């Protein structure tokens, strides 16, 4: 996973946690499909570890 993937996941997590809207990710980052899945995995890790959320699916 690249720094960008972790950075994007962090931006998404903060938006979720603080209920603040953000710009479309594609306006600030260039991700291919594989990278987007890595971002998703990192976001799920943050949700379960930091927010103690349960992710299903």
Q: How does this model look, in words?
A:
By secondary structure, this protein is mainly alpha-helical. It has one domain (3-49). The chain is built from three helices and no strands. It has helices at residues 3-18, 25-28, 33-49. The longest helix is centred in the C-terminal third of the chain and has 17 residues, at 33-49.
Question: Percentage of helical residues?
Answer: 55-70%
Which class best fits the helix and strand makeup?
A: mainly alpha
Biggest beta-sheet profile:
none
Apparent shape: globular
Distance between the termini: 22 Å
**Any idea what the radius of gyration is?**
11 Å
Number of helices: 3
Total DSSP E strands: 0
What's the oligomerization state?
single chain
Q: Which percent band covers the strand fraction? A: under 5%
**SSE order:** HHH
Domain tally = 1
Describe this protein with a few key phrases.
single chain; 57 residues; mainly alpha; 0% strand; 2-keto-4-pentenoate hydratase
Tell me the layout of helices and strands.
Elements: H1 3-18, H2 25-28, H3 33-49
Helix pairs in contact: 1-3
Summarize the structure.
With 57 residues, the protein is mainly α. It is built from 3 helices and no strands. It has one domain (3-49).
